[in-house]
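Schema walkthrough. Field components (list of strings):
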Amino acid sequence: MNATARHQFGRTDLPEEQQRALRSAVRWEIFTLCYSAVTIFLVAIVVGNSQSMRTAWVEDMLSTLPQIVFLIALPMVRKRPTTQHPYGRHRAMSIGHLVAGVALLTIGGALAIESALGLIRLEHPSIGTVNLFGHTIWLGWLMIAVMSVIVVGPFFYGPAKVRAARTLHNKVLYADGDMATADWQTNAASVIGVLGVGMGLWWLDGAAAIFISIGIISDGLRNTRVALSDLMDQRALRFDSTAPHSDIATILGTLHALPWVADAGVRARDMGQVLHIEAFIVPNEAGAGTERIAEASERIAETSWQVQDVVVTLCDEIPAEVTERITRAS
Amino acid sequence: MRAARRSAIATLALTVALGTSACGITIPSDPEGSLESVEGGTLRVGYAPDPGRIAEGPGGPTGPIADVVTGYAHTVDADVLWTLGSEETLSDAIDQGELDLAVGGFTEKSPWTDLAALSRGFLPPGTPENTPMSVALLPMGENALLSSFEAYLDEEGLT
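Field assembly_structure (string):
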């Protein structure tokens, strides 16, 4: 048995590039948690009676969910399969993703309703002053200052996470980076809300809060949808869910190149970071023995670091449900 | 979705920018113009007597908090129109826009936060020892008036 075959099931090592990306991702996730702790504290000091500030504050707290999910799920997905968990624990990432999505959805919804009720009841937000080093300063200016300063962080860690997510094919990480990249909109909205209150346009605060809540809801919907689709074993897609996963075509091409293969089809399950592959092969008149099956399985495992748990089945005909297939022209 | 969000932000920002430049607005300002009507006019103040802080007197209320109110009215060049009432009546009157300010036994633990804005806590000289800090009730969202009153408290070193 060679190295590839040994790694066929429940592989826990990663190629150099993915190891680097993973280390970077973990560092960024921990950094983000610390950064968020600081911003949550700073906003808590100035949050006052502004609904948009309060909504942005809750969003800050919610934004730590993907990081916590990622850091908790990571050691799980890297565990080797056991008798109890014969496929490993790759789904931990998707389950965490689902939990984060549902949390965003419900809390975002609650915030939207609260903000809308405030507007309907014509609640005029009161923002008073603070005494800072002997000067009386309108608290709104401090709110704007805090929101303008803390907007900087996500511009750095957002794209860094998206880059790592691309290399690692990790959808939680991608969602986290993607949400961080859009985070400035929350800060901008709360600044506009507070400025509105300052100008006597009291409704702008509630309007900004609704805008921020809708952003949270749409993040929740997107995350829930992606996590559910993966848990329901949809066709394997790219890390950003925009196109079919390219490894499938590569695997089909690899099988196509084997001289004894007449027809081949593949079913792939996206397990979060890795793919579980079932290959169906119709051998030609040359026939196939266990050696050829082992060869096919090794070739498939070699196509990408993501390809794991390869099962090769010989059949007379590719089952109709297996739609990812090629047919060799005779 | 993304594009829609961005353009919504741009529209809001534009509203704020136009609003500010068109009206030469000062920040903070009052949606109902309370401070403007108080300055050089009348400060409508409700009071609920509270031992040691404010009491009924022959020519209007007396006590440390009454002094704070008259001191503030003086700085904004306003005459004080006093109304006597219970704390609940005063809170409702503030909510209805019938008063600009309410004082009495209100503290930072006041339950009337749904009806009125609370000022920062203050402790005027002459209040009995171990009394919690007083707050004044002001109309919700009238942030210029609130800021002007709090600035007075700071200037007098009462906070």
